[in-house]
Design brief:
Pathway: Carbohydrate degradation; pentose phosphate pathway; D-ribulose 5-phosphate from D-glucose 6-phosphate (oxidative stage): step 3/3. Keywords: Gluconate utilization, NADP, Oxidoreductase, Pentose shunt. Belongs to the 6-phosphogluconate dehydrogenase family. It is an enzyme of class 1 (oxidoreductase). The protein is mostly helical. It folds into 3 domains: 164 residues, NAD(P)-binding Rossmann-like Domain (Rossmann fold, 3-Layer(aba) Sandwich); 267 residues, Orthogonal Bundle (N-(1-d-carboxylethyl)-l-norvaline Dehydrogenase, domain 2), CATH 1.10.1040.10; 48 residues, no CATH class. It is globular, with a radius of gyration of 26 Å. The structure holds NADPH dihydro-nicotinamide-adenine-dinucleotide phosphate and ribulose-5-phosphate.
Length: 504
């Protein structure tokens, strides 16, 4: 296990629990000692050993070796690979369990080809608790290595509600890391919508623990049933700090958490940036994911926000929400949260489908479905059973069939929940609530199902100044339905000389 932090430490213990001898490497000796101590306490006798140099570490492993990375993304992995290479042999496997950029994964796979080392990009999900108990795993790369590894991975992976392991072969090349990256993009869309709903409930006057109870209800039944992020939202809402304050209180931890999400800016994580960049580069409209990312960014600048708040004389803070029927409003909020979560899935799947076509990864979509069934952060039982299963589990699921905006079952739910989504956004606008992902979701569904968009005017302006051409309404040519340049240009205003324009 190279990298013994929150995730690597948990996975090292998980492997040891499953009878595997684990050799540890981390710059922090203390991190390795802690894992060894925990292993001893758990009764995994002599299963965990620490190593300072790669030669000794590699000599300690039986062949073909399995080397697991749980490292920060980027150059760290390159340096580690460089250092390990001289001590590895043909057929050894590197299982990169970090959140690595798929292009780095593919570059390393290329580098490993000649010496015959098999490099697998394997996103893992579920946080450090799942790393210890069994994560959802998303491996892609060399098929022979994947087939050899799968039995072991199935032993350690999370199990879904039917007891099936949440790990399957995703596809070739960097597809495993790609799917995990998009998982995180979806995660961010869902987390944004959920925190926005939480913010509105706070402004309705609900206490932290009361909101926890609402989330617990949402998680029990209906469209948000079995949604991990709703479940942990319920759980965290009642956690109290064991330290007492001066007045003898044990404060709710959530009441003390500052409103900033920083890891995109600190570089700690990259998946949010990469998944949005991918959406843009692959021409996928991903309103909910894009704005969720922007909310994180804006939130990170706490100091700037404080200064702007002063300059704007207090800014535009959310007003207290008075609603006639609290129960009905919370039900609208639940439905709005659900459609924003579903929109996040739809946008994420559209990104994966476009990338699969572009890279020829041949992604197995029933594997994607299975790894998202349990153990991962975006686990959502209702969405999985009702919406995704009929599409992703199908034996002929392909990038062409993945667009859930064209799926009648998804359309039924979105149409049913749309009035609630509109009610929530309208109330939010009226009272200055912070609801970017929920509002963007309303716009998203309006736009992707709309056949009378104001972009006619946009197109005309583009043609006016740029000769960018347009197509005409009613043209029977099927090409006009494709994203291709239009056939017509109108001379809205002929170009004139400088003298004619400026009169000199
Ligand atoms: N935390 C989470 O919830 C999840 C994280 N991930 C991904 O898993 C990976 C690990 O994350 P996480 O455990 O949270 O991060 P941590 O920072 O806790 O762990 C990373 C570990 O790698 C160590 N490290 C740095 N350089 C080297 C090196 N050259 N050789 C060996 N070890 C090294 C670090 O040591 P030091 O601190 O001394 O530099 C640290 O102990 C990341 O890619 C992350 O994106 C994936 C899913 C969930
Ligand atoms: O990969 C993860 C979950 O799936 C990690 O928890 C990750 O650290 C979350 O950070 P970010 O919100 O920046 O993706």
């Amino acid at each position: 296990m190279i990298g013994c932090g929150a995730m690597g430490g948990g996975m090292a213990l998980l492997f040891a629990e499953n009878g595997v001898n684990v050799s540890l490497s981390d710059p922090a000796e203390k991190a390795m000692d802690t894992i060894i101590k925990k292993g001893k306490e758990a009764g995994y006798k002599n299963k965990l050993k620490k190593f300072k140099d790669y030669k000794e570490l590699c000599n300690s492993l039986s062949k073909p070796r399995l080397i697991v990375f749980s490292l920060p993304h980027g150059s760290v992995g390159d340096k580690v690979l460089e250092g390990l290479m001289p001590h590895l042999s043909r057929n050894d496997i590197i299982l990169d369990c970090g959140n690595e950029h798929f292009a780095n994964t593919e570059r390393r796979q290329e580098k490993c080809k000649e010496p015959g080392i098999r490099y697998i990009g394997c996103g893992v999900s579920g946080g450090y608790q799942a790393a210890r108990a069994g994560p959802s795993m998303c491996p892609g790369g060399d098929q022979s290595a994947l087939k050899e590894l799968l039995p072991l991975l199935k032993r350690i992976a999370a199990k879904d509600k039917d007891g099936k392991p949440c790990v399957e072969i995703i596809g070739k090349g960097g597809s495993g890391h790609y799917v995990k990256m998009v998982h995180n993009g979806i995660e961010h869309g869902m987390m944004s919508a959920i925190c926005e709903a939480w913010g509105m409930m706070r402004k309705m006057g609900l206490g932290y623990e009361e909101i926890g109870k609402v989330f617990a209800e949402w998680n029990k039944t209906g469209e948000l049933e079995g949604t991990f992020l709703i479940y942990i939202g319920a759980d965290l809402s009642s956690k109290r700090d064991p330290e007492t304050t001066s007045d003898g209180e044990h404060p709710l931890v959530i009441s003390e958490v500052l409103d900033k999400v920083v890891q995109d800016i600190t570089g700690e994580e990259g998946t949010g940036i990469w998944s949005n960049t991918e959406a843009i580069e692959l021409h996928i409209p991903a309103f909910t994911l894009n704005i969720a990312h922007a909310l994180r960014l804006a939130s990170a600048y706490r100091g700037d926000r404080e200064q702007a708040n002063k300059i704007f004389n207090g800014g535009f803070p959310p007003q207290n929400l008075s609603v006639k029927d609290k129960g009905a409003f919370i039900e609208d909020l639940r439905k709005a949260t659900y459609v924003a979560c579903l929109a996040s899935y739809i946008q994420g799947l559209n990104i994966i489908a476009a990338a699969d076509k572009e890279h020829g990864w041949n992604i197995n979509y029933s594997s994607v479905w299975q790894i998202w069934r349990g153990g991962c952060i975006i686990q959502a039982d209702y969405i999985s059973d009702e919406i995704l299963a009929p599409v992703l589990k199908s034996t002929n699921a392909s990038p062409e069939t993945l667009n859930l905006n064209l799926n009648p079952r998804a359309a039924k739910d979105i149409s049913k929940c749309y009035p609630s989504l509109r009610t929530i956004v309208a109330k939010s606008v009226e009272t200055d609530q912070v609801t970017p992902a929920i509002s963007a979701t309303l716009e998203y569904f309006k736009v992707v199902t709309g056949t009378d968009l104001p972009t006619s005017f946009y197109e005309a302006e583009l043609d006016y100044f740029g000769n960018h051409k347009f197509d005409k309404k009613g043209d029977p040519d099927p090409q006009v339905k494709k994203p291709m340049e239009g056939k017509y240009h109108f001379e809205w205003k002929p170009a004139v000389s400088q003298k004619e324009a400026y009169g000199k």
